[in-house]
Amino acid sequence: MNESYLSNPPYPEPLPEHRIMVLLVDDQAMVGEAVRRQLSDQAHMDFHYCPEGAAAIRLASEIRPTVILQDLLMPGVDGLELVRKYRQTPETKYIPIIVLSATEDPEIKSQAFSAGANDYVVKLPDKVEMIARISYHSRAYLNQIERDEAYRALRKSQRQLVDGNMVLTQLSQRLQRNNEALQAAERLARMGSWSWEIARDEAVWSAALYEMFLWDTTRPAPRFEDLKMIFTPESVVLLHAAAAACTTLGTSYNLDLEGIRTNGEHFFVNAKGQAARDPTGKITSVFGTIHDITEQRKLGEIAQKSAVLEERARIAGEIHDSLAQSFAAIVLQTEIAEEQWNKADRTGSMNCISKARDLARFGLAEARRSALTLRPSHALLQGLVHALKQLFDRASIKDVLTCETTTKGTPRRLAPLVEHALFRVAQEALNNAGRHAKANRITSLLHFRKKTVTLTIEDNGIGLPVDAENKAEGFGLAAMRERAEKAGGHFSIEAQPGKGTRVTVEIPDPAPAPKAKP
Question: Containing H/E element for 447?
Answer without folding.
Answer: strand 441-448
